[in-house]
Write a structure and sequence with these properties.
The chain is an alpha+beta fold. The chain contains six helices and five strands, in the order αααααβββββα. The protein has a five-stranded antiparallel sheet with strand order 1-2-3-4-5. β3 and β4 form a beta hairpin. The longest helix is centred in the last third of the chain and has 37 residues.
Amino acid sequence: MLALGLAASIGLAGASAHAQRLLLPPPERPDALMRAVTAEVVAVLKQDIAAGEPTDVEQLVAIKILPLFDFRRMTRMAVARNWPLASPEQQGALVEQFTTLLVRTYSSALSSYRDQEIHYKPLRAAAGDTEVLVRSTVRRAGTEALTIDYDMEDTLAGWKVYDVKVAGISLVITYRETFAAMVREAGIDGLISSLSEKNQRNARAQTQ
């Protein structure tokens, strides 16, 4: 009887979990996710510009942008073959410093926003694809349209960006050769120190 009761409980639990999954909304498409977040960010920027108030870019990035990115994968791609040579502590430090560098780069771009129009192209992906390319164009009066594409992966935490291509040039891969040269010259710790110093210089420049 106990065995039958346990089996029945497991069956009911499984049925309940299945029912709960059916009640959940379908996962958001990666292009729709990027479009929605972009619209929210642009709305804040336009509102602040219209009011003549400075935007708290760091807070905006922290709330809206950071959750979209897989910074660990981005760091691993940039460090490339030297990644396995780093200890877990070094890997953590690399992710922290590279994240700071990328976030500051993104913040600087947002700070210079004026009247750009951002359009997302129809997603080219098959059902079940776990990695996709979300394509967009940025237009501003009097300038040629700029393509910005996002490589995204469907993770347990939802869709995440793991690379950004500006005019076809990978943001992550751009750093790979520089990072490799730094590791050859000064090892993993030298790369960490170099990134830390660069982030500190950028921070001081922003406060001046």
